[in-house]
Amino acid sequence: MTGPAVQEKTVVSAEDRARHRRQRRAAAYAEAASAGWKVWLVKIVALGVIDALAVFAVFSLATSGQWTPATLVAVGVIAVNAVYLIPGLLPAKYLTPGLVFLLIFQIFVVLYSGYVAFTNYGSGHNSTKDDAVSALLLQSQTRVADSPTFPVKILEKDGKFYLLTEKPGSDQPLIGGAGHPLSSEPGVTATGAPGYTTLDFQGIIAHQDDIAKLAVPISADVNKGYLKTTDGSSAYLFTSTLKWDPKADTMTDSKSGTVYRDTGHGAFTAKDGSKLLPGWQVWVGGENFVRAFSDQSIRGPFLAVLTWTFAFAILSVATTFILGLFLAIVFNDPKMRSRKYYRVIMILPYAFPAFLSALVWAGLFNTDFGFINQVALGGAKIPWLTDPWLAKGAILVANLWLGFPYMFLVTTGALQSLPEDVVEAARVDGASVWQTFRLIKFPLLLVAVAPLLVASFAFNFNNFGLIYLLTNGGPQFTDASINVGSTDLLISMVYKVAFVGSERDYGLASAFSIIIFVLVAGISLIGFRQTKVLEDLN
Is the dihedral of CA 105, 108, 111, 116 positive or negative? Predict the structure, then answer.
C-alpha cells in the first residue's frame, strides 16, 4: 500500500519540478527580453545624440568649406551606427569607443603635427593667400582726400554687419559687407532689405567697435577702395597705399615704388628681402628641420637645450634611483624597528601633488624671501633661480624630492621579491655583504626595475610641469631668435616657440616635436633591448 503512494508522490514531485523549471525559464526569457528592449532603447538614444551632433558638425564644416573634415565625420558616424546596429560584431562594439578616442586624440594629433612641421604655419602665416591680400590692403588704407560723403545705414544679418548706401549720382540702393562688394539686390530699398535688420541709434552704439572695423569694397577690384564709417551714418572712401596686381602676382607700395613678389615662401618679398606681413600658409618641405640645425640663432640654443635635457633626464633618474635604493635597503633591514612608520614618512612627498610641490620649492628658492636664503643661509642673496647653473641645480634638487619616493617604492618591492635561498647560498659561500649586493642582489634588481628606469627617463625627458612652475625655463638666452632659456627642456622650448610671445612658429615647434619623438623612441628602444639582455644574463 505504501509502494504505490510513494510512487505517485514521486511522479507528482517530478511533474512539479518540471513545471517550475518551465516557469523559471519563461520568466528568464521575459526578463532577458525586457532587458534587451532596455538595452536597445539606451542604444538608440545614445546613437541619436551622437548622430545629432555629427549632423551639426557636418553642416557646420560644409558651410565653411571644410569638405575633408566633414566627409571624415560623416563616414565615421556611419561606421559607428553600423557597428552598434548590426547584430553580432561584439568585439567591435567594445573596441569602437577606444578606437574613436585613439583616432581623435592620438593619431590625428600626430599626423596633423607631422603635416604642420612641413609648413610655415605660424604668426603671419595662418591663412590663405586671398585672405593675406585682403588684410594687406585693409591695413594700409588712407582716406581719399576728396572723398564724397556716402549716407549709409547699418544692417545686420546672422551676426554680420553690412552697409546700405546709394550709388553716387543715382538713387540706386547698394548693399555690401566685409568681403562682399557693393551690389544691388532684389527688394533692397533706401531704408532696408529683406532678411536684414536695420540698426537704430542704440544698436549702432552697442556695436560701434565692430562697425568701425567694417570695410566694404566698392567693387570687385579691391584696388578701387573701401567704404568705412565711424558714426554709422556717413561713410568715406579709403584706398590702400599698396596696389595689388593679380596678373603679375605683385604688391606695389605706391609711396616708395617698392615691388613685392610672391617668391613661394608664403609672403610678398622685395628684392632686398623685406616682407609684407601677414603672409599665408604654404608647404616648405624640410625647411623647418634645416633651420633647427643650420640657423645659428636657433641651432646654438637648441643644442644647449638638447644637452641640458639629456643631462636633466639622466641625473634625475640616477639621483632618485640611488637615493630610493639606499633608503629601501636601509628600511628593508629586519633589525630596524618601526620600519613601517619610516616608510610612510618616506612616501609623503609622493602623496602631495607635484605641481604644488614645485610651487613650494619655487618659494623656498626665492632670492629675496625664500626660506633657504633667509633662514637656512642667514639672509644671503643667492640667485637660485636666476643664475643658469644654480637654477639647474635647484631643479635637480626639487626633482630629487619629487622622484625619490617612487624609486623607494619600486626598489622596496623588488628587494622583497628576491629569492632568499640565493642570498643565503651567497652567505654560505662566504660572500661579504657588499659582494652579495653587487654580484647577486643588484643584477636581479635591475632585471625588475630596468623598464621602470627607462619609463622614468622618458618622463623626465618631457618633464614640462617642473620646469614651467619652478623657473619657466629662465634665465633667457639673449642671443637666441626664439624664446628659450637656460633651464628649458625640449618640451618647454616647443611650448614657448608655439604659444608664447608675439611671434609663434607652429611649423618649427612641430619639427622640434618630431625630433623629440625620434629621440625618446630611440632611447626607449635601446633601453628595452638592454633590459632583454639583462634578463638573458640572469
Answer: negative
Q: Dump the DSSP string for 297-311.
A: HHHHHHHHHHHHHHH
Answer whether 210's CB lies under 8 Å from 161's CB: yes
Residue 34 predicted with pLDDT over 60: no
In sequence order, what are the residues at sequence separation of 6 or more whose Cβ sits closer than 8 angstroms to the Cβ of residue 279? 120, 124, 125, 132, 265, 266, 267, 268
Residue whose grid cell is 559687407: 177
Q: What is the pLDDT of residue 498?
A: 93
Compute the mean pLDDT over every residue in the chain, rounded to the nearest whole number. 88
Per-residue pLDDT tens for 50-85? 899 999 999 998 988 888 889 999 999 999 999 988
Chain position carrying cell 563616414:
75
Please name the residue that has the C-alpha cell 629586519. Answer: 334
Cβ 204 vs Cβ 214: under 8 Å: no
Count other Cβ atoms within 10 Å, centred on residue 533. Answer: 11
Q: Which residues are bridge partners to 165 per DSSP?
A: 174
Q: What is the dihedral of CA 376, 382, 388, 393, to 10 degrees?
A: -10
Torsion angles phi and psi, residue 406, rounded to 5: -65, -45
- Crossing angle of helices 388-416 and 339-346, in 10° steps, is 140
pLDDT at 8 over 70: no
479 backbone dihedrals φ, ψ, rounded to 5°: -105, 15
- Geometric angle at alpha carbon 458, from 453 and 463, rounded to 5°: 115
Q: Which amino acid is at 313?
A: A
132 touches 219 (CB < 8 A): no
Cα-Cα-Cα-Cα torsion 239, 240, 241, 244, nearest 10 degrees, comes to -120
Nearest to 225 by CA among 234, 214, 236, 210: 236
Which residue stretches of 125-276 are H helix?
129-139, 201-206, 208-213
98-134: per-residue pLDDT in tens?
999 999 898 999 999 999 999 999 998 989 999 999 8
pTM, to two decimals: 0.80
**What's the half-sphere exposure (Cβ side, CA atoms, 13 Å) at 155?**
23
